[in-house]
Amino acid sequence: MNVANTNIRHDLRTPVNHIIGYAEMVQEDLEDAGIDGGSGQQLSALVQKAHELLEQVNRIRTPEEGGPPLEDQFAEWTDVLSDLTRLHSDVRAAVPEAGAGSLHGDLDKIGDAINHLADMVRAGSRTRLADPDPGPEASGPGDATGASSDAPPGEAPEDAPRILVVDDNRSNLEILARRLEREGYRVSAVTSGFHALARLGDETFDLILLDVVMPDMDGQEVLDRVRRKYGPTELPVIMVTGLYNSDSIVQALNAGANDYVTKPVDFPVALARIRTHLQLGELARDLAAANERLFRYSYMDGLTAIPNRRHFDEHYAREWDRARRESLPIAVVLMDIDYFKPFNDYYGHEAGDRVLKEVGRALDATPRRSSDLVARYGGEEFVAVLPGAEQSDARDFAERLRASVEALELEHSQSGAAAHVTLSVGVAGERPVTGGDEADDRRRQLLLRADEALYEAKEGGRNQVRCAPDPA
């Protein structure tokens, strides 16, 4: 694709897009204000003429592409430009001065765009005229002065979706921002890729409308950088392109763009795509939240709100395998609430549930390493796995667990160990060295050894910690 030839078509399309965009906004404002006087029909004719001219722009073939001189091709546009000028004058005359609000300002912008287009056509291929209102240039990522702006605040509520619009042309920004705000969105607008990335570093947005052709940093590079941080469902990106070739569109979609719209932006189509991707993003967030809840239900104990037996079993198996691979020690701690059945019989099961919750919270709150896991094992039993811990270290931790429960001083008049709720604790540890089926058996044996130590703690008077002997 010849960039220079593409730029000629891009430069010509820009004022035509402005004519269409501002005219459609004026049509909406006229309907809202209840103003007609024939202006609505004339505006529709103006928009139709602009679309006809846009088709001619898209058909341009430069001499480098084998086409005739541009002056010869532009000669065919004289009648259409005259029709646009006449229709614009008719609309201006039909719209009353009083009660028209910002209508005349937008009509002036339509006139500016028509004049700018006429100047470009008269200039032919001799020069490329600058945009009459390109907005300040962004010279680099550290220079944000004047290069970004928020659209007027509008009436959007605080929880309305936030959209970042990125385009180096201020008229394009204004058209999109104003129309989106009318739909209830909160809109921020920036005129360069540098400043789009700066805003993304400081603020949160729900969707980006990103122009493809921009100086310094084009939309493709901005998209690449956005996708390094945000996935397509985290931050949808819709590319806005005036390039009428499938290669650029496919490239953007392959790089992670969610969708695209072409200039002039068909606003109802763009709005439908924006709503679709915002809804998909919301569905993705809902799904992530549902998955998080499912994880909690699957791996957390419903009564005590600490990890459950399933969570422990999987964590223990993973840490055992890691300890075997890396020749590290591992220890387990088994705990049992002393005389819990007599407690339930005397105080009732509701009181028993409260004790389980309090004990679970106390065990979970005991300071430990991030790799250590405390879980409910079943009934009144709790368990901990301590990767990388020697048995002596595990015994110290087990004593802290026992003491944390005793410190609760939960009344237990039916206990033979104390006047309050206490724990008996068994500890076992080893350094795994075998693999295969034998490794699974050794992992189970470690738990059995901890259980035997727990039995010894109970037989020895309860409310104490006992350690298993070293494995054979």
Averaged pLDDT: 86
CATH superfamily of the largest domain: Reverse transcriptase/Diguanylate cyclase domain
Helix content: 40-55%
What's the number of structural domains? Answer: 3
**What's the CATH class label of the largest domain?**
Alpha Beta
Please tell me about this protein's structure.
The protein is α/β, with parallel strands linked by helices. The protein folds into 3 domains: 3-123, Four Helix Bundle (Hemerythrin (Met), subunit A) (Up-down Bundle), CATH 1.20.120; 148-287, Rossmann fold (3-Layer(aba) Sandwich), CATH 3.40.50; 309-467, Alpha-Beta Plaits. Helices cover 54% and strands 12% of the residues. It contains 15 helices and 11 strands. The chain has helices at 3-33, 39-58, 70-74, 78-94, 103-123, 170-182, 193-202, 219-229, 246-254, 267-299, 309-326, 340-347, 349-365, 391-406, 436-459, and strands spanning 148-150, 162-166, 186-190, 207-211, 237-241, 259-262, 330-337, 373-378, 381-387, 423-430, 465-467. The strands form 2 sheets. A 6-stranded mixed beta sheet has the order 1-3-2-4-5-6, sandwiched between helices. It has a 5-stranded mixed beta sheet with strand order 8-9-7-10-11. The protein is elongated.
Q: What keywords describe this structure?
A:
472 residues; alpha/beta; Four Helix Bundle (Hemerythrin (Met), subunit A); Rossmann fold; Alpha-Beta Plaits; 3 domains; six-stranded mixed beta sheet; 11 strands
Task: Please outline the helices and strands.
Blueprint: H1 3-33, H2 39-58, H3 70-74, H4 78-94, H5 103-123, E1 148-150, E2 162-166, H6 170-182, E3 186-190, H7 193-202, E4 207-211, H8 219-229, E5 237-241, H9 246-254, E6 259-262, H10 267-299, H11 309-326, E7 330-337, H12 340-347, H13 349-365, E8 373-378, E9 381-387, H14 391-406, E10 423-430, H15 436-459, E11 465-467
Parallel strand pairs: 2-3, 2-4, 4-5, 5-6, 10-11
Antiparallel strand pairs: 1-3, 7-9, 7-10, 8-9
